[in-house]
Specification:
The complex is a heterodimer of chains A (111) and B (112). Chain A is an all-beta fold. In chain A, 0% of the residues lie in helices and 60% in strands. Chain A is built from no helices and eleven strands. Chain B is mainly beta and 112 residues long. Classes of the chains: A mainly beta (111), B mainly beta (112).
């Protein structure tokens, strides 16, 4: 059974810092991995999708990497801004299965 | 292009009642997923529909059920509501089975 964890659970940084969010999964035979952000009480916004054959994906100030063999993905946010404050979730999908979500990292970027 | 839409936005019910939540996927998307996010808990997978068929089901009692219509929209039905069913119910859609999921804004259900 796939299990997903995220470290840290919460993070508070001053504006402008570069930061890394971590996602770990127990079953490395994944099909793909997706990163989302969620604002309080809202739905999820898709940030990046990485296929199992890819090592990384980039979108603007965001870069996500994937290391299947070690069961890890990282989300790198460059030059953080107060608008980046949200909960960041990673979700992992194995073939024939639904997405399994991690518990999220709650990020606060202080002005 | 319109995103995933859900209705209603908010809903208040009492214990024992029944509720129906609705989801319209992005145009062209054939897969629809339902999730429950209770306060302080993570996203729990409920149901996955693809091309009108139920493909997978999460660890929820049978009083949670749903269906997908020929236009790929979907309904989630919850019978005999319990207090712990209070949660944000999220719907997502994807183009095909293993592609990027896009979420709707959710339906906030409160059971009194």
């Amino acid at each position: 059974k796939q299990e997903v964890t995220q470290i840290p659970a919460a993070l508070s940084v001053p504006e402008g810092e570069n930061l890394v969010l971590n996602c770990s999964f127990t079953d490395s035979a994944i099909y793909n991995l997706q990163w989302f952000r969620q604002d309080p009480g809202k739905g999820l916004t898709s940030l990046l999708l990485i296929q199992s054959s890819q090592r990384e994906q980039t979108s603007g100030r965001l870069n996500a990497s994937l290391d299947k063999s070690s069961g890890r993905s990282t989300l790198y946010i460059a030059a953080s801004q107060p608008g980046d404050s949200a909960t960041y979730l990673c979700a992992v999908r194995n073939y024939g299965q639904n997405f399994v979500f991690g518990p999220g990292t709650r990020l606060s970027v202080l002005p | 292009e319109a995103g995933v839409t859900q209705s209603p936005t908010h809903l208040i019910k009492t214990r024992g009642q029944q509720v129906t939540l609705r989801c319209s996927p992005i145009s062209g998307h054939t897969s629809v997923y339902w999730y429950q996010q209770a306060l302080g808990l993570g996203l729990q997978f409920l149901l996955w529909y693809d091309e009108g068929e139920e493909r997978n089901r999460g660890n929820f009692p049978p009083r949670f059920s749903g269906r997908q219509f020929p236009n790929y929209s979907s309904e989630l039905n919850v019978n005999a509501l319990e207090l712990e069913d209070s949660a944000l119910y999220l719907c997502a859609s994807s183009f095909g089975t293993y592609n990027e999921q896009f979420f709707g804004p959710g339906t906030r259900l409160t059971v009194l």
